[in-house]
Design brief:
Elements (H helix, E strand, L loop, with lengths): L5 H19 L16 H7 L3 E6 L1 H4 L2 H10 L2 E4 L5 H4 L9 H12 L3 E8 L10 H5 L4 H13 L6 E6 L16 H6 L3 H12 L4 E6 L7 H19 L6 E4 L2 E3 L7 H13 L3 E10 L7 H19 L5 E6 L34 H11 L3
Parallel strand pairs: 1-2, 1-9, 2-3, 3-4, 4-5, 5-6, 6-8, 7-8, 8-9
Helix pairs in contact: 2-14, 8-10, 11-12, 12-13, 13-14
The chain binds (3S,4R)-3-hydroxy-2-oxopiperidin-4-yl beta-D-xylopyranoside (XIL).
Length: 370
C-alpha cells in the first residue's frame, strides 16, 4: 500500500492510512546519503552551540532525495504527526509506536537529536477520547498515557512538548488558559499532573511548554506575552518541573510584524526565570502578498531574520526547528489554508530541495549568533 500522503494524514484519515501503511511496512527507513554538510544549517547551528532541525514524517522520508537533504541540514527531528495521541493510541489502551520509532531510528542513525511532540494537546486526539472519557475525570487518562509514551522513549529524546497550546487569552479566563476538555475535566492543575508524570517517566528529556502567540506585534500578542509570563511564574511557584518555553514561531510575511523590542523584553524575562527557549515550529506563511516569487521569498526571509535575530540573541535559546524542511509537502489543503493554485514557499528548501532566501536568513542568523 502506498504510504499515506499529507492529504490523508491531514484530512483525518491519517490514523487509518498510517496504521495500514505501518502494518504493511517494515518500519525501517533507509539511511540517507549525506553530502555537502560543511555549509549546512545543521553545521552552522552546531558551531554556535545550537540545534537546528525540522518536523518530518515517515511518508516524507520515503523520498530518498528529501531524506538526504534532511540528514544534511537537520541536527534534530520532531514528528509532524506520528507522536500525536491519535497516531500513538488510536484504540484505547493500545499503543502503536512503529512510525514514531522509525523516525527516532532515522535520527539516531544520522546522529541527530530527536524531540517529542506532544503529550497533551486539545487537538489530534483519537475519537475514543471523547466527552464520555473525560467525564470520568480519571487522572489516569492523562498520567497513564504520559507514563506509557514518555516511558517508551525514555533516554532517547532531547525534549518533550509536555503540553501544547495551553493558553488562549481570548477565551476570557483570568489566567488566560484555553478552554479545553483537559481543563474542564481536571482544572488548571492538569498541566502540573502532566509535567510531574513526564519527569517521572523520563527525567532525561527537557520538559517544554509549547505555544504560539508570543511572537507578533499585534495587541493580542501583547496580551499573550503577559499571560505567558504569568502562567510560567505560577507554574514555577507551584513547583511544576517545567524547564523550557517552546515558541512555535509560525510567522506571516505579509501580516503583523514581530516587534523586536517587545519580543526581546519578553524573552529576557523568560530567561530570568531560569527557563531555556526553543523555537519549535518556525515557518513563514507567504500568502496574501504579491504573486512575484522573488518578492515573496524576500519577505519570508526578512520576517524569519527579524524574529531569529532577537531569539538567538538570548543565551537561553538552545534550538530552532522549522515546521518542515521543504515546501514540497505543503500542497495539501487544510492546516495551512492553502488556496488552490497557490504553492506556499514557507521553508528553507523549496519543493525541488533548492535553498531559498529563508535558508540564507537562517544561516546568517546562526552565523551571527554571539
Ligand atoms: C499539525 C500538522 O502539521 C498536521 O500534519 C497534523 O495533522 C496536525 O498538526 N501547532 C502544533 C502542531 O503544535 O502540532 C500542528 O501540526 C500545527 C499547529
Amino acid at each position: 500500500m502506498a504510504s499515506p500522503n499529507r492529504r490523508d494524514v491531514m484530512l483525518g484519515g491519517g490514523v487509518a492510512a498510517l496504521a495500514a501503511w505501518g502494518a504493511g511496512q517494515a518500519q525501517v527507513l533507509k539511511p540517507a546519503i549525506v553530502e555537502d554538510s560543511g555549509a549546512s544549517l545543521r553545521a552552522r547551528a552546531a558551531q554556535r552551540r545550537l540545534l537546528y532541525g525540522a518536523a518530518t514524517s515517515t511518508y516524507q522520508l520515503g523520498q530518498s532525495d528529501f531524506a538526504g537533504a534532511l540528514a544534511r541540514e537537520a541536527g534534530i527531528l520532531v514528528a509532524e504527526y506520528e507522536m500525536k495521541r491519535d497516531a500513538i493510541e488510536p484504540v484505547r489502551g493500545q499503543y502503536d509506536f512503529a512510525a514514531a520509532d522509525a523516525l527516532a531510528q532515522f535520527a539516531h542513525v544520522h546522529g541527530m537529536a530527536f524531540r517529542g511532540h506532544t503529550l497533551v494537546w486539545h487537538a489530534s486526539n483519537p475519537r475514543w477520547l471523547d466527552a464520555a472519557a473525560f467525564a470520568a475525570r480519571d487522572e489516569r487518562l492523562l498520567t497513564s498515557y504520559i507514563s506509557a509514551v514518555a516511558g517508551h522513549f525514555r533516554g532517547r529524546l532531547q525534549s518533550w512538548d509536555v503540553v501544547n497550546e495551553v493558553l488562549l487569552p481570548k477565551d476570557g479566563r483570568a489566567d488566560g488558559m484555553r478552554l479545553s476538555s483537559w481543563l474542564s475535566a481536571f482544572g488548571p492543575s492538569y498541566v502540573d499532573l502532566a509535567f510531574h508524570a513526564a519527569r517521572a517517566a523520563d527525567p532525561h528529556a527537557l520538559r517544554v511548554y509549547n505555544d504560539w502567540g508570543c511572537e507578533g506585534g499585534a495587541p493580542e500578542n501583547d496580551t499573550f506575552r503577559r499571560a505567558t509570563l504569568r502562567f510560567l511564574e505560577t507554574l514555577l511557584e507551584r513547583g511544576v518541573p517545567i524547564q523550557a518555553l517552546g515558541l512555535q514561531g509560525h510567522l506571516a510575511a505579509f501580516g503583523s510584524k514581530v516587534d523586536q523590542k517587545k519580543l526581546r523584553t519578553f524573552l529576557d524575562e523568560v530567561r530570568a526565570m531560569g527557563l531555556k527557549i526553543l523555537v519549535t515550529e518556525h515557518d513563514v506563511d507567504d500568502s496574501g502578498g504579491p504573486s512575484d516569487i522573488a518578492l515573496r521569498d524576500r519577505a519570508v526571509a526578512d520576517a524569519s531574520r527579524r524574529f531569529l535575530d532577537v531569539v538567538l540573541d538570548n543565551s537561553a535559546t538552545i534550538a530552532v526547528l522549522t515546521w518542515g524542511l521543504s515546501d514540497r509537502f505543503l500542497d495539501a489543503p487544510g492546516f495551512r489554508a492553502v488556496l488552490s493554485g497557490y504553492r506556499p514557499r514557507m521553508l528553507p528548501l523549496d519543493a525541488d530541495l533548492a535553498r531559498t532566501p529563508m535558508w540564507s536568513a537562517l544561516a546568517s542568523a546562526f552565523d551571527q549568533r554571539r
